[in-house]
Amino acid sequence: MSTFEDDSTGFSDVERAHVREAVGVKDFEWVRFDEPSVRVPLDLPLSQARITLVSTAGAHEVGEPPLGAGGHAALLPAEAKIELSHDGYDTERALSDPEVVYPVRTLQQLADAGVIGSLAPTVVSTMGFVPDGVRLFARAVPAAVQQIRDEQSDLALLVPA
């Protein structure tokens, strides 16, 4: 039996330095919270739950402008044809298999198989790199929460990119 060794120690410092130096956001700092988020158990079986996909892949509808790093969310129909615009990863490779960062088809297959109840009709899309975390919480989060409530979703699946 092998032992798992945590190699993430110090990663946040390395990433902070990268954003400050290589990306050029000289005053970048992680958003910190005094308390962890409240954990709310799912009160129904997963096979009955409506799930909203929240992706940080920078997805936007074909022909619409990219989201950018301003902290906005796009509310996309689940069946929308998408493009990916993101400075943090190879979007061309991701578009060859968008399920890696935007798994709408996989979630629909899980719903069809009865593993989950349903996929919400709207996907919440944001840019994965928003150096001003406060702006993200002020702009994207309220829109995402409202959409999840409006569509009576039971949970949100966050897929980071």
Structural features, described:
The longest helix has 18 residues, at 133-150. The two termini are 32 Å apart. The chain contains 4 helices and 7 strands. It has one domain (46-159). The chain is globular, with a radius of gyration of 17 Å. Helix content is 29%, strand content 18%. The strands form 2 sheets. Strands 1, 3, 5, 6 and 7 form a 5-stranded mixed β-sheet that branches. It has a two-stranded antiparallel sheet with strand order 2-4. The protein has 161 residues and is an alpha/beta fold.
Could you state the order of secondary-structure elements as H and E?
A: HEEEEHHEEHE
Helix/strand-derived category reads: alpha/beta
Please give the number of β-strands. 7
* Quaternary state of the chains: single chain
The total of helices stands at 4
Sheet with most strands: 5 strands, mixed
Mean pLDDT: 90
Low-confidence sequence ranges: none
Intertermini distance: 32 Å
Helix content: 25-40%
Question: Quick gist of this model?
Answer:
This protein is α/β, with parallel strands linked by helices. It has four helices and seven strands.
Please describe the structure with a list of short key phrases separated by commas or semicolons.
single chain, 161 residues, alpha/beta, 5-stranded mixed β-sheet, two-stranded antiparallel sheet, 4 helices, 7 strands
Task: Indicate the topology.
Elements: H1 11-23, E1 50-55, E2 59-61, E3 73-77, E4 82-84, H2 91-96, H3 104-112, E5 118-119, E6 122-126, H4 133-150, E7 155-159
Parallel strand pairs: 1-5, 1-6, 1-7
Antiparallel strand pairs: 2-4, 3-6
